[in-house]
# Entry
Amino acid sequence: MTGSPWRIVPASAGYARDVAVCHIESWRESHRGLVPDHLLAAFDVDRRAARWAAHIESADRAPTEPTAHTVVLAVDDTRAPGDRVVGFAHAGPPRDVPRVADRELYALYVRADSYGTGLASELLRAILLPDTDTVLWVFEENRRARNFYRKFGFVADEARRIEPFSAASEIRMIARRGITGRR
# Structure
């Protein structure tokens, strides 16, 4: 998006803490009312940053294969240090057995003040590979996210599971042969 304050970049180790802050804050913003408040309050930035450092360390910065772990960030340098990551996406090989797709979108989060700006669309396009079946899991009650993914060709199938951290019901969505759609 021309004129946007952010830039989409491959993740690097120096951003692990910023990604952790974005992850925690975006979870709180997008899941309030879907997840008990005491669980949202329990997030620990240091633990989350350590996990993101490991994900980033193992990520492929220029993926061409569906099995590549990839993390891309939306960085806004006009924001204060420690708060510059305003969105991120993480994808890699699917975890489901049997596999129903070639790639899985593990996470796509943007801060609430970036809703409706096109940032999530940019991140989705940056993380997914063309002509690749992609699967994701989304909270069944998160209508905003489900509607967003539908715009890009994701369709819910019959699979459901309980997300272990929150005990919320998730549904599986699949996009066949790449994404379509718009902002």
Remarks:
- Strands lie at 6-10, 70-76, 85-92, 103-110, 134-139, 155-162, 169-175.
